[in-house]
Amino acid sequence: GENVEQHPSTLSVQEGDSAVIKCTYSDSASNYFPWYKQELGKRPQLIIDIRSNVGEKKDQRIAVTLNKTAKHFSLHITETQPEDSAVYFCAATTPGGQLTFGSGTQLTVLP
Amino acid sequence: DTGVSQDPRHKITKRGQNVTFRCDPISEHNRLYWYRQTLGQGPEFLTYFQNEAQLEKSRLLSDRFSAERPKGSFSTLEIQRTEQGDSAMYLCAIGGYNSPLHFGNGTRLTVT
């Protein structure tokens, strides 16, 4: 089955700096890659996603890149703000349809 | 509005007891998923339904776990003879094939 690895597990950045979270996946058949943000005690919420026919996608301060050949994808957050502090999860979907999640990155934005 | 209502929000039970959770999608969705999340980990897939048919079950889903979606709308997840290792957040999600999954607020289970 699919295996998703995520790094780093914790990340601290100064407010205004950029944050980058990286994930790798094992199943070359995976074709959909969402990112979720989870605040303490709350549900995971989708923040951006990318499909395998696209190399990059951007939504305001958030961007995701995908390298199918290397089987890795990354989340980029620019001009970080304190409210960006949360746990971020990457995930990959196999053609079977279910999501396999990474182990999460605790992002802390320091004021 | 999450699009998915889960009940109860919290459940505390003693080891060996049976528990049942409910998931109600607010609107019709063909696919309904159950995930489990333990502290510090990402959600883990348990099972999913296409309408009323349970199409896939994870190896994580022991024979103490059973899920149903009798009319293709709401779903229930039952855990029999609970163990302390069952303590987790149980998340229900709706979504389509290779499209975003939207999670409910979850049921937090504590087994004492």
Structural class of chain B: mainly beta
Instruction: Note the run of SSEs of chain B as H and E.
Output: EEEEEEEEEEE
Residue-averaged pLDDT of chain B = 92
Radius of gyration of chain B: 13 Å
Alpha-carbon distance between the termini of chain A? 41 Å
The chain-level structural class of chain A is mainly beta
Q: What portion of the residues of chain A fall into strands of 2 or more residues?
A: over 45%
Describe the structure.
The complex is a heterodimer of chains A (111) and B (112). By secondary structure, chain A is mainly beta. In chain A, 0% of the residues lie in helices and 57% in strands. Chain A has strands at 4-7, 10-14, 19-25, 32-38, 45-51, 56-59, 62-67, 72-77, 86-93, 99-101, 105-110. In chain A, strands 2, 4, 5, 9, 10 and 11 form a six-stranded mixed β-sheet that branches. In chain A, strands 1-3-8-7-6 form a five-stranded antiparallel β-sheet, with no helix packed on it. In chain A, strand 7 and strand 8 form a beta hairpin. Chain A is globular and about 40 Å long. In chain B, 0% of the residues lie in helices and 53% in strands. With 112 residues, chain B is an all-beta fold. In chain B, the strands form two sheets. In chain B, strands 2, 4, 5, 6, 9, 10 and 11 form a seven-stranded mixed β-sheet that branches. A four-stranded antiparallel β-sheet of chain B has the order 1-3-8-7, with no helix packed on it. Chain B has strands spanning 4-7, 10-13, 19-25, 31-37, 44-50, 53-57, 65-68, 75-79, 88-95, 101-103, 107-111. Chain A binds chain B through residues 6, 31-32, 34, 42-46, 49, 51, 89, 91, 93, 95-104, and chain B through 2, 31, 33, 40-45, 48, 56, 91, 97-106.
Protein topology:
The complex is a heterodimer of chains A (about 110) and B (about 110).
Chain A: E1 4-7, E2 10-14, E3 19-25, E4 32-38, E5 45-51, E6 56-59, E7 62-67, E8 72-77, E9 86-93, E10 99-101, E11 105-110
Parallel strand pairs in A: 2-11
Antiparallel strand pairs in A: 1-3, 3-8, 4-5, 4-9, 6-7, 7-8, 9-10, 9-11
Chain B: E1 4-7, E2 10-13, E3 19-25, E4 31-37, E5 44-50, E6 53-57, E7 65-68, E8 75-79, E9 88-95, E10 101-103, E11 107-111
Parallel strand pairs in B: 2-11
Antiparallel strand pairs in B: 1-3, 3-8, 4-5, 4-9, 5-6, 7-8, 9-10, 9-11
